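Work Package 3 (structural annotation) set out to generate three-dimensional models for the target panel prioritized at the project kickoff. During this period the team completed the workflow that converts sequence records into discrete structure tokens, so that structures can be stored uniformly alongside our sequence database. As a representative example, we reproduce one entry of 302 residues exactly as it appears in the project archive.
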Amino acid sequence: MRCSNFRWENRHLEIGARGDLNSDLPWIDGLDFKHREVQDERSALIEETLNEYPVAGFELQLNNYPRYFHPDEVETGIGIMTDWIGRVHEAVKKSGADRELVIRVPTSLEDALSIGLDLETWVKWEIVDALVGEPFSAPNRIDPNTDFRPLAAIVKGSACRCIAAIHSHVDSDRLAEAPISMVRATACNYWEQGVDGLYLAQWFPHWPYQADFYERLREIPHPDIMAAKDKYYYILTENARPHEPWVSTQLPIEMVVNRPATAKFAVSDNLPRWDKVERVHEVLLRVGIAGTTESGSDSLQP
């Protein structure tokens, strides 16, 4: 386990230190931010980075193992965390007026608040320069249907920006990394929601970087360039890897004879426009069915 000496030597500062929580509850071995010692230790590391290195700012990842307070003390913790974020923001600006504080957070305001992150107050108090949104607890898989509109709404008219974390990992039985058509579809769906930028999250598996990697980088900042190109809209499906119990996917869906099933996905393409200028070659709906054979007599009706 990668851990600092401070963590090993201060187990009494952990969220579950009182011993009153179920051992199966995720992330209770994390540090409890109600303790001033925890805040000071984190702040010292941040200030060292700001003062010793020529950085453009600082990023806080608050969506990975996201628990910062005892579940019974989250309401009190909201104010504690807001004060600490303000402290970090002050340190960032003190080290350089042009430096920025960027924070990775859940896209859901309710999920964020449930762990002590009051995003609306941070924006209102101008103690964050950009919020990078991604699904709660960061499953780290590409999802064209992630909803960034709540984040985009709270930063509208403020100095803060809403950045969409775009992943490239598919991790299915057919694909490891997303092809460029899937990345285009995802990026266009995100831009359509009014985000201010994209954040490349967990793209390091592409190493060593080849031409197709740089092709992705050249295109995704420009929805107008991607608009008339091929796209692959994908619905996230459950895979064999372990995940937190609250992480759900639309697929798979159990099919029952004569009972309709629904799966929803967003498509940002203006198909009538491109069809009018004869740029649409085909629109293909691809459905995968498991648990049947070629000799079966099952049929589907749209």
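Strands lie at 57-61, 100-106, 130-134, 161-166, 197-200.
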